[in-house]
Automatic annotation (TrEMBL):
Domain AMP-binding enzyme C-terminal positions: 443-518
Keyword Ligase: yes
All copies of domain AMP-dependent synthetase/ligase, residue ranges: 35-392
Sample GO molecular function, one term: acid-thiol ligase activity
Entry keyword annotation includes Ligase: yes
Name of the protein described by the UniProt record: 2,3-dihydroxybenzoate-AMP ligase
Native source organism of the sequence: Saccharothrix variisporea
Family: Belongs to the ATP-dependent AMP-binding enzyme family.
Keywords on record: Ligase
Length: 533
């Protein structure tokens, strides 16, 4: 096991093997096996329409793997990959798996304050970037990173390399198979402050993650999956994402951005059947679809996750986009929850799904760590065959983030229905304490989203000397913004308790987002308090 990674207990390794969750195959089997079984089927489609069959993509990954190995990259070395949704990301990902080099998957939105610490923590020997994406030149960032990180031996660029190296290719070579219990890659935690922590995902657990997610989402060889979110995001990569689509023998289409203009054109051109987005993007698509001339008739399923999708907009997906909705609630650390395709409309719109795996263990506890009564709210704790046992090189944090018996403390506040479905009620810190009255931000946001003049809503607490906190509702309006008086009257009509009514309403054109596309409530509070970023 790589130094700095928390090993799986031997009894769980044997249990997960015996119960069939772990198959001791390399994660690369998703492409290699597809190339054996259906070599001529289309595996990957770029935004410009360029296509690769499973056999062609498999051969491309082999050539890159040989090129990297020829330059001296070796198993268990770490590299940082920061690529947009380009075909090279997919080929490189499988190539790194074949060499045994461990990719740290950074997001395109990351900048120096994230990339340098990631490279330092992982002791990265290589950094993979595009030349530019939008108006940002990653080569400038690479120059800074190279000066700051002594371990960095290579910078590989897709596009105009400048003084750096092109992605290498060479004649394929035989490479040893990896240990399936060992890490295959590192994901980043979705924290909103500080440097993201590294999440080791093994071949066994991530392969199960992708395959089981694909099965519960109804993926098949006829699936055409559009990658609208960054491919390095756990949701778009393997929940079920592009890896799940390949596990089912389907086709992956890459979108350079999630805008309605881009996505709707690709859905029509490639007859996309499923895609996955975060709630703000789903809201935007539903708002503009009536004004766009796009044929979305092929779209069968919209997966929404990354943050809670409130019931008001969730109930409008079918009538606006003409497809089914699947809510997905999970974490890069492991546990995934899906509404099932045969769930009732009520479950699909009001819950965030039930655990993926029969071996997922879920505890819901109070502030003292004691289990709450059935149906009561509490913090979600979990462990299972695809949930991490500890962050990489984070012994002190792991002592706080895990119980003594290995349950991960998610920080999410949930309640569980008798059906097993979870209802997400926010984060422990996403609750406003107004003079001793507790106000769940998610609940008030859901009411606000029902207002005909509100496109999106985010509720935060304002520091207050008398009450401790008061409530501010940030809204993105549809047209003219409603006043505080109008919002209050609307909420009263819906039966909202007086103490939950917002003390202030602020209208914005758009919300600040974290690097993973969630609303940054930290930044919203800073705007209220004038605190430095």
């Amino acid at each position: 096991m790589l130094d700095g990674c928390v090993p799986w207990p031997s009894e769980l390794v044997e249990r997960y093997r015996a119960e069939g969750y772990w198959t001791d195959q390399p994660l690369d089997e998703l492409l290699r096996g597809g190339a054996r079984r259906h070599p001529e089927r289309t595996a990957l489609v770029a935004a410009d329409g360029t296509r690769w069959t499973y056999a062609e993509l498999d051969a491309w990954a082999d050539r890159i793997a040989a090129g990297l190995h020829g330059l001296g990259l070796r198993a268990e070395e770490r590299v940082v990959v920061q690529l947009p949704n380009v075909p090279e990301f997919v080929a490189l990902f499988f190539a790194l798996l074949r060499v045994g080099v461990l990719p740290v998957l950074a997001l395109p939105a990351h900048r120096e304050s994230e990339i340098v610490p990631l490279c330092e923590l992982s002791e990265a020997v290589a950094y993979f970037i595009a030349d530019t994406d939008g108006d940002f030149d990653y080569r400038e960032l690479a120059r800074t990173v190279r000066k700051a990180v002594p371990s960095l031996r290579h910078v590989f660029v897709v596009g105009d390399t400048a003084e750096f190296e092109a992605l290498p290719e060479a004649a394929p070579v035989d490479l040893p198979a990896p240990d399936p219990v060992a890490p295959a890659l590192f994901l980043l935690s979705g924290g909103t402050t500080g440097t993201p922590k590294l999440i080791p995902r093994s071949h066994n657990d991530y392969l199960y993650n992708a395959r089981a997610s694909a099965e519960v989402s109804g993926f098949s060889e006829n699936t055409v999956y559009l990658v609208a979110l960054p491919a390095a995001h756990n949701f778009a990569l393997a929940s079920p994402g592009l890896l799940g689509a390949m596990a089912a023998g389907g086709t992956v289409v890459l979108a350079p951005d999630p805008s309605a203009d881009t996505v709707f054109e690709l859905v029509e051109r490639e007859r996309v059947t499923v895609t996955a987005v975060v709630p703000p993007i789903a809201l935007l698509w539903m708002d503009v679809v009536d004004f766009m001339d796009a044929d979305l008739s092929s779209l069968e399923l919209l997966q929404v996750g990354g943050a809670k999708f409130n019931s008001e907009p969730a109930s409008r997906v079918r009538e606006t986009l003409g497809c089914d909705l699947q809510q997905v609630f999970g974490m890069a650390e492991g546990l995934l929850n899906f509404t099932r395709l045969d769930d009732s409309d009520e479950l699909k719109t009001t819950t965030q799904g039930a655990p993926l795996c029969p071996a997922d263990e879920v505890l819901i506890v109070d502030e003292d760590g004691s289990p709450v009564a059935p149906g009561e709210s509490g913090e979600l704790l979990t462990r299972g065959p695809y949930t991490l046992r500890g962050y990489y090189k984070a012994e002190a944090h792991n002592a706080r983030a895990f119980t003594d018996d290995g349950f991960y403390r998610s920080g999410d506040v949930v309640r569980q229905l008798p059906s097993g479905h979870l209802v997400v009620e926010g984060r422990r810190k996403d609750q406003i304490n107004r003079g001793g009255e507790k106000i769940p931000a998610e609940e008030l946001e859901n009411h606000l989203l029902a207002h005909p003049a509100v496109h999106d809503a985010a509720v935060v607490g304002m520091p207050d000397e008398v009450m401790g906190e008061r409530t501010c509702a940030f809204i993105v309006p549809k047209g003219e913004a409603p006043t505080l008086r109008e919002v209050t009257a609307f909420l009263r009509e819906r039966g909202v308790a007086s103490y939950k009514l917002p003390d202030r309403v602020e209208a914005l054109e758009s919300f600040p987002l974290t690097k993973v596309g969630k609303v940054s409530k930290v930044e919203l509070v800073r705007r209220l308090t004038g605190a430095a970023g």
